[in-house]
Design a protein that fits this description.
Blueprint lengths: L2 E4 L5 H9 L3 E3 L8 H4 L5 E4 L7 H5 L6 E4 L9 H6 L3 E3 L6 H17 L1 H11 L4 H7 L10 E5 L3 H12 L3 E5 L5 E6 L9 E6 L3 H7 L2 E4 L11 H4 L6 E5 L8 H10 L2 E6 L10 H5 L3 E3 L8 H19 L4
Parallel strand pairs: 1-2, 1-3, 3-4, 4-5, 6-7, 6-10, 10-11, 11-12, 12-13
Antiparallel strand pairs: 8-9
Length: 320
């Protein structure tokens, strides 16, 4: 019988599907420091972002056949090394795209209408300074007609484009590889109206120069996508959103750009020092923050569990 360690949790529907395929599923959390001792007893491990599966651990687990990541990014796994040892590495790129994209758009609205600041102030001043707050937060802007730059045009970037186009925004997308895709608008199960818009990627320099808003959807890298040099290429008064990886935007450079007015506002769902983000970012009045919840919706978590189960069944088969 195939034994699977689910070390960072899985949706009950995903677990049930694995158990119905006759896998032994253990969702008892094993601390990182104990994995080298206990993981050799399993054929596979499912992790999210908390558990690290590095070369040293892989070398101590000769029975390991699959490493699965419930999510998109695999920064916590030595992917190429695992594959060089014949281990299958799985992630779930389709399951959470909608949830991440909706969070991006939520932050776009929040920044444009100062919702993050108004919510804070209304709780403490709303009953006594209502008119002053109304005046203070009455200079928001509409998203319709603005240009959204999307850096990284994979599944999530394309889903953000779909939502942005539906809002009447212009979209400029860039990627490491030239890409032309059809973005489907409309939902056939809800409306009879549906059509496609064909989008082609453009150079990064154009995204920097022309975008009123920029959202980033790329894997982690040793260098930030937006550092000091890149910041100077952006439009004055741009809004930035990062739901990809901490450090994709240089945090110190961002703080300086917010103070100078180069950046009008930023939204961060990810941070360099998770789970202890820089307090200056959390407290900054021009930054909308959320605690790394891009893929954390009930629907996405269920989809992740089911996608993982399908991948295991495809790899191992049923009734093992």
């Amino acid at each position: 019988m195939i034994k699977i360690l689910v070390n960072d949790g899985i949706h009950p529907d995903g677990k049930l599907l694995l158990e119905e395929a006759n896998y032994a599923v253990d969702d008892t959390k094993i601390p990182q420091e104990e994995l080298a001792e206990k993981l050799p007893n399993y054929d596979a491990i499912i992790v999210r972002s908390a558990t690290k599966v590095r070369k040293e651990l892989i070398d101590q687990c000769p029975n390991l056949k699959v490493i699965a990541r419930g999510g998109v990014g695999m920064d916590n796994i030595d992917v190429e090394y695992a594959r060089s040892k014949g281990i299958r590495v799985i992630n779930t790129p389709k399951a959470s795209s909608q949830s991440v994209a909706e969070l991006v758009v939520g932050h776009l609205f929040t920044l444009s209408r100062f919702l993050h600041r108004a919510n804070r102030d209304m709780t403490t001043k709303g009953a006594t300074e209502f008119k002053a707050l109304k005046k203070q937060y009455s200079k928001g802007v509409q998203l319709r007609g603005k240009t959204l730059g999307i850096i990284g045009f994979g599944r999530i970037g394309q889903e953000v484009a779909r939502l942005a186009l539906g809002l009447g925004m212009r979209v400029l997308a860039t990627d490491l590889f030239d890409n032309t895709v059809n973005i489907d608008l409309g939902t056939p199960d809800v409306s009879d109206v549906a059509f496609s818009i064909r989008l082609s990627t453009v150079p990064l320099a154009k995204v920097f120069a022309k975008s009123d808003y920029i959202t980033i959807h790329v894997p982690s890298s040793d260098q930030p996508v937006i550092g000091a040099a890149e910041m100077q290429q952006l439009k004055d008064g741009v809004f930035l959103v990062n739901t990809s990886r901490g450090g994709t935007i240089d945090e110190q450079v961002l703080l300086e750009a917010l103070e100078s007015g180069k950046v009008a506002g930023a939204a961060l769902d990810v941070f360099t020092n998770e789970p202890t983000p820089n307090q200056d970012l959390l407290n900054h009045p021009k930054i909308s923050v959320s605690p790394h919840i891009g893929a954390s919706t009930l629907e996405a978590q269920r989809n992740i569990g089911l996608e993982l189960a399908d991948a295991f069944i495809d790899f191992f088969g049923e009734d093992n």
